[in-house]
Write a structure and sequence with these properties.
The protein has a seven-stranded parallel sheet, sandwiched between helices. The longest helix is centred in the N-terminal third of the chain and has 14 residues. It is of the alpha/beta class. Helix 1 packs across helix 2.
Amino acid sequence: MFTIALVCQKGGAGKTTLAVHLAIETQRRGLRTLLLDLDAQASASKILGRRGDDPPDFDTEHPARLEESLKTAAAEGYALVVLDTAPQADQAALRAARAADMVIVPVRPTIVDIDAVQTTMDISALAKRSPIFVLNAIAPQGREATEARTVITDRGGVVATAQIGDRKAFRTAFNDGRGAQEIDPASKAAAEIEALVAELNIPTIKQPNKASRRKVAA
């Protein structure tokens, strides 16, 4: 089982939006996916709860029980677990980063978000993980994304080539618990998510046919 943690010191960076879209896209690609919502606000669970019985599965969990939950998920036959964490670089974020095979950090190209990058880097270093930064909510014009990419790489960070635009489709799709790639497969938003998932090169794991997990929404 492969585990991806989305970790970010700065609130409003688009962590939950990216977590939900990654979970939907990997499920669409044949990976049995579970999203574990470690944020007390449970935004990701509320979004996916609107899907009814359509996968991906999700559950809410307290960070202190994360290791046990991951063991259960592996036993249930999940190929991928996406961890959506609270917007703080604290012990919960550190626990999630340590439990993950891959750490993804969404970053908006603003000075406030860039200032928070170092704290997230420090948390990842404590977890002995090399995070992948994903530029998010990029304006259609301007040099902000290029400048943000330069700042992060100058600090030794790795920035994904794929970047996510500031697109209405990402927000409106959540009205029905959907991803942008589901409501408009030909959209730029869909292409961006598909490009990111392809770049991440998530391992494909053969999954046993087991019953779906009970979905829990906060």
